[in-house]
């Protein structure tokens, strides 16, 4: 993370140790979130540290009469920009060389925002939630925190100096008021505007201000008689440090994507860091000695470089693993190892030389400015290159009508800016702006009365919804669509996802779906999901399916589970038609595309579901996946001029038509054969 260089303050080894704790947690989380699900809160540790350090440095300069705003910003330019420029250059060159033009172009646009310290704004407006697919596959997602810090540093030094000179006796009070206001905004926004709250300065600034509050109470600025620190000279100091360390560790282990973040739970890593700072910075304890060990000290010094380089290389590794059918974790680990090596080289040969303020400083600053301009120009050139998925017009434009049936309301995401979707047509109902799931979903009463067919699931349910709607319309059967893109599992799991930020919202969604099934008692319920994303083990899938059938089976005529179609190994970051057309060349036929590493899991899940049909009288399983395999196990993704796939795992409208007969058969049988309760026909 971007923190002031050692030369700006009296060096403290425990501070580097704290940096080490934070970067190790973030690194592990980004390689494998399941290993340390709250590791992302290492960023919050960095925030408090940064606020503490900059406040300490500025107050020291004011006390000694050496503070200089010009010098402050020059030092930050020397300290931060060279490595950041090198990282951006490596990322855009890597993406332009090995990935399709649309993906490289979007990355270059993001890189421009990053260079001008506005990456957090770009991510908020273009990539969405931190745990969403778009953010996961973007190589510069991690720079949102750097944007917040740099925006903080644009205003904070001026305000702190003014307060210190004209309101010195009230400095702590003013900082406390600002901290409380920002914290309250963060609490409110975490529940009502979660994406914006996660990424913007007004709702995250309190974390840096908390570090500033700790700095203002240090004896070096207030005198040794300061009451708030005097008691730390006693035996309380080790206990305070131990409590702080435990709080940070607890945040790494317990906080997850199901929490409203940064809500109340954010106090765990931030207050823990504050307590640890109070204990170790100006005193000697067991914890401070551990933080000062060689490994922790050296890791801490490398933390900024490692933070810059680790996420792009991990992301690139995952993309390449997908393309070659390898486990995503293998790609993440490989990318992480390469990132460690590159981060060290950048630290030694870029970061350290350019932050030297001795002889030749002016020349180094001009070199930084020149490098910034050249890399910015390169990013602009790559970003402005035209995106053409099918330059020879070999295919019809694919269409995905699923957004018309999203019970969560019209999505605000602009899919024309998403590389995998920019050439896909998305019909959208502009009036669908409310959460229709609260009132029964999107209901089409073609037969009058209550819905006889209900569709549950995620975006995979949406991709069949147009087809199911057309079948029901032709037969005069009322239908309700209760599927939501990113809204949670098809089963009643109560799991917070991208559209439901808290477990409470997810549970409310499940209870609402239960209520309508009890009320309607439909003839058929379609259960459709991306099963390989919900379950890592077919045994767990079977247990959840049995539980779902036991609850829902007595309420409906039949439960129809739809297997998942094969998933192309390219992943979410690439445009399928760009890959195909680039491999076709001139006059060549369609290239072979193969499933990803979870193909066997999907087949096992489908087989487990089929094995339960004999045990559950009203369970049916349909297998659209079998229609999209060729004899050599490659994916049947296109025929003639039509693409069956919109991206790596969603069918287009034309693709869903391939399996119309499967859905017609189930709907007709359910409608003509009556309903069954407990195996009895009525």
Q: What Rg, in angstroms, do the CA atoms define?
A: 28 Å
- How many distinct helices? 27
Class inferred from helices and paired strands: mainly alpha
Q: How many distinct beta strands?
A: 10
Structure characterization notes:
It is a single chain. With 682 residues, the chain is mainly α. It has two domains: 6-384, no CATH class; 402-673, Rossmann fold (3-Layer(aba) Sandwich). Helix content is 57%, strand content 5%. The protein is built from 27 helices and ten strands. The strands form three sheets. Strands 1-3-2-4-5-6 form a six-stranded mixed β-sheet, sandwiched between helices. The chain has a two-stranded antiparallel ribbon with strand order 7-8. Strands 9-10 form a two-stranded antiparallel ribbon. Helix 17 packs antiparallel against helix 18. The chain starts with 12 loop residues before the first helix and ends with a strand. Residues 2-9 and 675-682 have low confidence and may be disordered.
Features:
two-stranded antiparallel ribbon; disordered C terminus; 2 domains; mainly alpha; globular; 682 residues
Précis, in short:
With 682 residues, this protein is mainly alpha-helical. It has helices at residues 13-31, 42-64, 69-98, 101-115, 119-126, 133-137, 144-166, 171-192, 194-199, 201-216, 219-222, 227-230, 236-254, 267-280, 286-291, 294-301, 303-323, 328-354, 361-384, 459-475, 503-520, 531-534, 538-552, 576-584, 599-611, 653-657, 660-672; strands at 442-444, 453-457, 479-483, 524-528, 558-562, 619-622, 638-639, 642-643, 676-677, 680-681.
